[in-house]
Every structure is written in structure tokens, then in C-alpha cells.
Design goal:
The chain is of the alpha+beta class. The chain contains 4 helices and 7 strands.
Length: 186
């Protein structure tokens, strides 16, 4: 069954079961989740709200990740190091640990993404025979569990301050059938 977003018309009633007039009801629809990650609003006001998934997200060959494309220079600066003299080894691991500590959000994922037209050229890296992006992601469109594992609004604000920009959706470099290679799939 494909990933779908269904809308159900709510019939609001008062405590006595009497239907309310439509002018009294502010939101007449409720997002339901059947399979996949189409829900934007979690029903928890303390959690971050994401940008909508791009059109056709469920028919793509790869899943989508919500986060930031980064460069090694950005990570050195975030860690308070000079890009020229900073420690080269384990840069991504150290940055991941720093982000988890600084934001209090422990579900950061480090993944590779596809280069698209909106990608700054300084963030593109060469991996074997293809160009890719290094992405620090907070969410994934694979399933509801990975999609709903999202930061608090305050944590997202801290992340935006650290990265200097808002997060967005990036397409995974791997195909859906290869997703099990990621540690987060378990």
C-alpha cells in the first residue's frame, strides 16, 4: 500500500453531543497517518514543525532527510577550530557528539544526500564516482517512527543558530532498498 495522507472531516460536538456550528470550529480537518511520513503537525505544541514534504515524495527512488547540508569548514568553525589547523580525523563524529550535547537532541543522523539545484557548491563532496552532500539530519521520511522523532521547538531554534540556516528536505544518496545500510534503520 503506498504512503498516503488522508483527511477526515471532524464533526465537533459539545459535551452534550450537540453538533457545533461550523463558524465555532477553527480546524475542520485532522491529518491522519496510514503508512509513511506525511504528518506535519504532531499534536504536540512543544515539537518543531517541519516544512512540508516535497510533492511526490512517496514515489521517489530514495527516502528524504530533513536537516542541513554541511561542509568540513562549517564543522571546524562550529567546533571552534580553524579549518586550516583543526583536527582532521573523526571530524563528523566529533561534530555529531557536539551537536547532541549542545542541543540536547540525541537523534541526529549523519547521512549522504543527492546534490540538487539549491545546494551551495562549497558543500558538494566527491564520493568515489559521484558527487554528494554530507547531511546532519533530524528526521527521515522512511516511516512514522523516524519522521516523528523530532526535536523540541527550542532545540530546533538552537540548531538553526548553530547551522546559520533553516533545515530543508534532502534526498538520500542511497535507494530505498539500500536503506538498511544505515544504523538508524534499526
Amino acid at each position: 500500500m503506498p504512503d498516503v495522507l488522508l483527511k477526515r472531516v471532524l464533526t465537533p460536538t459539545d459535551p452534550n453531543g450537540v453538533k457545533l456550528h461550523p463558524s465555532v470550529v477553527k480546524d475542520k480537518t485532522e491529518c491522519l497517518h496510514t503508512r509513511g511520513a506525511a504528518v506535519r503537525n504532531t499534536g504536540r505544541p512543544d515539537l518543531a514543525v517541519y516544512q512540508p514534504l516535497p510533492d511526490g515524495w512517496h514515489t521517489r527512488e530514495s527516502y528524504l532527510f530533513y536537516g542541513w547540508a554541511i561542509s568540513d569548514d562549517m564543522l571546524h568553525i562550529m567546533l571552534g577550530e580553524s579549518p586550516e589547523t583543526g583536527i582532521k580525523g573523526d571530524l563528523h563524529f566529533r561534530a555529531l557528539q557536539y551537536l547532541r550535547f549542545r542541543t540536547g537532541f540525541k537523534h541526529f543522523m549523519f547521512v549522504n544526500g543527492k546534490v540538487d539545484a539549491n545546494t551551495p557548491s562549497d558543500r558538494v563532496v566527491q564520493l568515489e564516482s559521484t558527487q554528494a552532500l554530507r547531511i546532519f539530519a533530524v528526521s527521515c521520511s522512511k516511516n512514522k517512527r523516524l519522521f516523528m522523532r523530532r526535536p523540541l521547538k527550542a532545540q530546533m531554534k538552537c540548531m538553526v543558530n548553530l547551522f546559520g540556516e533553516e533545515p530543508r528536505w534532502y534526498e538520500d544518496l542511497h535507494l530505498k532498498r539500500e536503506f538498511s545500510t544505515y544504523e538508524i534503520s534499526y
